[in-house]
Amino acid sequence: PLLLLALSGACCAAVELGLRIFTRREAPTKTAGLELELCGQPVRLRAALDTGCHLHDPVTCLPVLVVSYPDAKARLPDAVNTFLDQWFAGATGADPPPGTRLRLVPCGTAAEKSLLPGFAVQGIGLITENGVLGLGRSAVVFAPRSFGSTAYEALYGNDFM
To answer: Phi-psi category of 96—alpha, beta or left, where left has phi over 0 and alpha has psi -120 to 50?
Structure first.
């Protein structure tokens, strides 16, 4: 019986050690500062990598940046806020702000399918310690709900950068 008790204790210790060594660690969130221009005003946003984000602009087939409208509203130009407030209130025929090119991007989640409003932008830049690195043209679309984080306002996919 003592041998059985000692072997049981050794097995429990081995399992506990294995769980502590080989547990999956949560992947760190990769965030990046991004800069773009909307209605002639520079907009700076914090974006996080979302490996499940595969949205593309249907016109250019380029990957898009998905921005949480409630989280980024304070950083956006007034004309963009006015348009998006109308859009999310149900006025889908509202005129986009002057000087912008409206993009409607189909989005399907587990909960629903919808069209997200957005704008084509000439250049999105990655903010680095040495300045802004241009990533080229793309589109920015707006989601009607918060992403639930204070660390970022936007999501980008693996193919965005």
So the answer is: beta
